[in-house]
Specification:
Elements: H1 16-24, H2 38-65, H3 72-81, H4 83-101, H5 105-110, H6 115-139, H7 147-183, H8 195-216
Helix pairs in contact: 2-3, 2-4, 2-7, 2-8, 3-8, 4-8, 6-7
């Protein structure tokens, strides 16, 4: 019998949105970015490095909560210093999602985080902003009558702790991996070309936080 040869049909490439959809249903952490667009990889690394710096500062701030009255000066200073890197972290995160929802091809190919983490993001950002604003409000409040600002600070802190705990556990491995790649980029790493700019950006955020703390601490003299 004569065999019938079927004509070869080339495989059609899957659109980036479909690939991103598969990734978003996978691991709770952000998908890998091996070989990603340099801009996408750079955004991921500055977000991760900032997150790592924030983790250290937040551990210090958390330790002061155990004895706020006894360590009120350190609590106030670190809390105000956090304003700089927190602003950078939120800005980098919002930028990534804005680019994704604007259908920027590299960011669509990168894909969004797991759905649960996308749902966690807005309330976490809102709780963080509320916690920071209420903290600044307390700086200008009479300690004898803290009223609204203290209540808002305490409530937002409880909500924030619950949300940030989930966030840190979900992103810890990815944050450590990307921070290490930022510190020790591999040969041929295209994202390494902008490493100096990212390090400078983080340094500026920290400097802005320090400047803010130094500028506002005199107003908090009544608390010390």
């Amino acid at each position: 019998m004569t065999s019938v040869h079927q004509p070869h049909r080339p495989t059609r490439p899957r659109p980036p949105a479909a690939i991103a959809g598969d990734r978003s249903r996978g691991s709770p952490a952000a998908p890998t970015i091996e070989g990603a667009d340099p801009g996408v990889a750079g955004n991921d690394r500055v977000t991760s490095a900032t997150g790592l710096v924030l983790s250290v500062l937040l551990l210090i701030e958390g330790a002061t909560v155990l004895d706020v009255r006894g360590m009120i000066t350190l609590h106030l200073y670190v809390g105000l210093l956090l304003l700089g890197p927190i602003t950078l972290k939120i800005a980098a995160t919002i930028y990534r999602f804005a680019r994704y929802y604007q259908h920027s091809t590299p960011y669509v190919r990168r894909g969004p985080p797991h759905l649960a983490l996308r749902l966690l993001g807005p309330p976490l950002i809102l709780a963080t902003i509320t916690l920071m604003i209420s903290g600044v409000g307390l700086v200008y409040t009479n300690p004898a009558h803290p009223g609204f600002w203290l209540n808002l600070h305490q409530v937002s802190f409880v909500i924030w702790v619950a949300l940030i705990g989930i966030h840190v556990l979900a992103h810890l491995r990815h944050t450590l991996t990307q921070s290490w790649r930022e510190l020790r980029p591999a040969p041929g790493d295209t994202a390494a070309r902008r490493r100096t700019a990212r390090v400078l950006t983080l340094a500026i955020a920290l400097a802005a936080g320090i400047a803010t703390a130094c500028a506002l601490m005199p107003a908090a003299s009544a608390w010390r």
